[in-house]
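Appendix B, record 7
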Amino acid sequence: MYKRLFFIAGIALLLSAAACCNRVPVPPDVVQPQWIVGGDLSLLDRNVAAGAVYKDSNGKDIEVLSFFKEKGMNYVRIRLFVDPDLQTAASQNLPYVQEAILRAKDKGYNILLDFHYSDTWADPGKQFKPAAWEKLNSTDLVNQVYTYTKEVLITLVKHGAAPDMIQIGNEVSNGMLWDSARVDVWDGEWNTPGRWLYFCQVLSKASQACREVCPQAWVMVHSDRGGDRDAAVRFFRQMEQGKVDYDIIGLSYYPFWHGPLEQLKSCLSALQTTFPNKPINVVEVAFAHHPWGIPHDAGYQTEHPITPEGQKQFLEDFIAAIKEFPQVNGYMYWYPEETYVPQRPVLTLHRGVFDNQTGKALPVTDVFDK
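Structure tokens (predicted):
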């Protein structure tokens, strides 16, 4: 009798242990800042490893995360690629991201994880499938997005690196995983009900994985159309019609590509009116401090001088503009960690917040939290 009871108890313990091993870990509670001041610091660790120079405006050496924290930043955004080439700037794989998140969390930052769902840069002009996903059929591709998203998040949670916000795709105004989930709000070839339905299914499965593993984290859908009122509204109406489960609208806004601040304000006004229950974050913004920072495909003349002082004035005016809209909860500066790297720069754009010749902090760092 006793042997039987011990046997049953042993089986119960084994089943309980197996259940514990398979259980999704519970992430910590999430407390979101009322006003987000963030930066996409995805290349910080690579820059530091390459010998990057970081100094305050007086020339004193600094630790970047601590410096940005003192300047008012409370959020760090980090992008993730599926199987990237580690020799390029688009090299952020899961081990890299996990370590970067842990360092930022140690300094008291909230974290936005930016899934690119690609082996390399994903943006409005390119959304390449990961090489390992190329031959998947439409059903398997949707399932792969779900499985990959869930596995990444489980790994991060297990290691104490749970994100507080999760971006399901990067600048996906034209869809993602081309050409399978490619869309367009205007063009007839890509603007069909079937294409939008499939794209929304992909996003919905990504969101489902986020809800299952990190239920308190905000889920963001990110469009690049920060200066295009009509396209932004049309895009997020498709999200609504496709019943995509997400919490926050993300926008990119670069004045040399997206137009003057009045165009951004027009876009924010329309989104705020059309989607009154969705907070909005300008999750990518940057301005050049040197003429070399204006890209060759710029479509607009900038309203501010292309100088360190002009960069500072732009950010002041930008922050004042977005604060006119109650639904906007802040912004994140893209690649502020760009600086002087004596050996070989990882990525040079002349839009960071440190001098590319000396590594000294530029005036713009004094207005992050205006």
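Remarks on this record: Residues 32-366 form a domain with the TIM Barrel fold (CATH 3.20.20.80). The radius of gyration is 22 Å.
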